[in-house]
Write a structure and sequence with these properties.
By secondary structure, this protein is of the alpha+beta class. The protein contains eight helices and nine strands. The strands form four sheets. Strands 8-1-9 form a three-stranded mixed sheet. The protein has a two-stranded antiparallel sheet with strand order 2-3. A hairpin with a 4-residue loop joins strand 6 and strand 7. It starts with a strand and ends in an 8-residue tail after the last helix. It binds iron/sulfur cluster (SF4) (2 copies). One iron/sulfur cluster (SF4) binds next to helix 1.
Length: 247
Amino acid sequence: MARYAMAIDLDRCVGCGACVLACKGEWNVMDGGARDWVIPILPEGRFPDVASTFYTGLCNHCDEPSCVPACPTGATYQDESGRVRVDKDLCIGCGYCVAACPYGARYHDARVHKVDKCDFCAERLDPDPHREPACVQTCPASARIFGDLSDPSSRINALVYGSPARRLETAEVAIGPNVYYLGDAHHVDQILAHHPPDPHRTVPPLPGLVWSRFLRPAVLAGVAVAFAGQAAAFFYQLARGEKPFGE
Ligand code: SF4
Ligand code: SF4
């Protein structure tokens, strides 16, 4: 089974924003919403040690995504390829997942009252695995690389494991991002300094926490017990030769 990941080469990114436009067009992203972003970080330091970069980001499709347990309906889930996705039919737009993402990678689409985010262009790739996400295909600098990290012959495997790739992690927020940054390591330090993942957003708001950790399991357990009781009564009546349900 594939394990999808993306690499972004900060030495190649020129900050043109073509990736963001491609994504908006591909997925009809709401004005004011974003499935990916490019934020300039202005030059810092003293000449000649001056550095600038772009925070070119998206959902990290984390190994231990804090957004998934925050979702009360199960709409946010991780598929077998590691992609963190939103089932729009199940989403009720409560926004608990938005509050539980330390990277700010989700937005509430007010047009349909659902939450939206990057899904590595799953609907585009699943019918044809040879296609690439819209942002990768559009990038004029070839700064974005996408593929199956578990495939030793893939380009992303060679780049991630063959170079000092880094992820946007801190001591407080280490949930296994699957977006890797290539290039000058100082650029990643700049991104983390200006846009660190928020350690206060790794758990859902209290109502969501109570629902997802306690009430939802209790409701599901209650339904299961009731169902088991009905089934037991049914078979008991059958075994005694009675007609079920007083027929
Ligand atoms: Fe969830 Fe945010 Fe991680 Fe994406 S970046 S998987 S939305 S916690
Ligand atoms: Fe950077 Fe490529 Fe996006 Fe342009 S399209 S901002 S070069 S990643």
